[in-house]
Design a protein that fits this description.
By secondary structure, the protein is of the alpha/beta class. It is 39% helix and 15% strand. The mean pLDDT is 95.
């Protein structure tokens, strides 16, 4: 195994180096280029191209556990995770309480670097990504979202305070585009039907989750999410389960990582046949009346003709004699 660091030119050189297959994780724009280059070389390509994961929180959820789960999966690695919860659809019946609790919990999280102590979130990976996060938050506030907490730099390096925005809608970039940062957009919905419809209104399709005490209803709703990985009362946890497929739909890409379903990318199927017979096959040259009779008998036998089955035995014997006579010169 080798690791090479670099930008797009390094990736292009890698694909052009004679590799047998390529697995890619990254943006949709770059992923399309990778797919195109792999197609030109007729090699397999498996790609995961980001996401805009949604969590649906129903009024009958296990409230405290759901708050903890949504906070973790939204802000793990400072939200710099293609499977982070970036949108949460909360039923109106508990929306006020849920948003209030989210704000209290998220406000208490610590962003690195922390002098002499543990941190819950790291900084943003680079300055360009930090600018995207800031632009998404600014756009949401300009279009009517309410800042519950965060929404600003920490003042230390590329740190950005974990942020909750309430009253979000699809007209905001923070709902429609991948933010890839410590920002959680809350969308209030009337009921589960509206939540599923709006959760599916995206060009991505990696993970999606439903949070409810009614497991049967949760499974039914999760199956309707147009994603590669659907969960009930958890989110993205299958990413550490090697036996489960990690895959997506739409602009996320159709590549599969993990599980036996990913084998086709990493190995080539091939066939090896060993014929231990001594007689020539009856359909080999030369052509004669018996060869035509052989073909007709095979067809009729496949259609259930008992007579064709019986006659085929005699035809095969005559065909073998004819083939041996051809090659022996007799």
């Amino acid at each position: 195994m080798q690791t090479v660091l670099g930008a797009g030119d390094v990736g292009a050189a890698l694909i052009d180096s004679g590799i047998d297959a390529v697995v890619f994780t990254g943006s949709v724009i770059t992923g399309r280029k990778v797919y195109e280059e792999a197609a030109r070389r007729l090699i397999p390509c498996s790609a995961e191209l980001g996401g805009k994961d949604a969590a649906i929180v129903l009024a009958d959820c296990d409230f405290d556990r759901t708050v903890a789960g949504v906070v973790h999966w939204a802000l793990h690695n400072a939200g710099q995770n293609c499977a982070a919860v970036e949108r949460v659809y909360v039923e109106d019946a508990i929306a006020d309480r849920f948003v209030e609790r989210l704000g209290k919990v998220v406000s208490g999280l610590r962003v690195a670097p922390q002098p002499g102590g543990h941190s819950d979130l790291g900084p943003i990976q680079n300055a360009a990504q930090l600018r995207i996060v800031e632009a998404h938050v600014a756009d949401a506030l300009e279009k009517g979202a309410r800042l519950v907490c965060g929404g600003k730099r920490t003042g230390r390096g590329l740190g950005y305070a974990p942020t909750v925005l309430d009253g979000c809608s699809e007209q905001m970039r923070v709902v429609s585009e991948e933010t890839f940062g410590p920002v959680l957009a809350v969308v209030r919905v009337k009921d589960a039907e509206e939540a599923v419809r709006r959760a599916n209104d995206t060009r991505y399709g990696l993970n999606g989750s439903v949070w409810t005490r009614n497991l049967e209803r949760g499974k039914e709703l999760a199956r309707r999410l147009e994603v590669g990985v659907a969960l009930v009362n958890n989110h993205a946890v299958t990413g550490v389960m090697p036996e489960t497929p990690w895959t997506g739909t739409r602009d996320t890409g159709h590549g599969v990582a993990s599980s036996k379903h990913a084998y086709h990318t990493f190995v080539r199927r091939r066939t090896l046949l060993v014929d231990s017979g001594h007689d020539p096959d009856p359909f080999w040259m030369p052509a004669n009346d018996d060869l035509q009779a052989f073909g007709e008998a095979v067809v009729n036998m496949s259609l259930g003709s008992l007579g064709a089955t019986v006659s085929l035995l005699g035809i095969i014997k005559r065909r073998i004699r004819a083939i041996r006579a051809l090659v022996s010169g007799v």
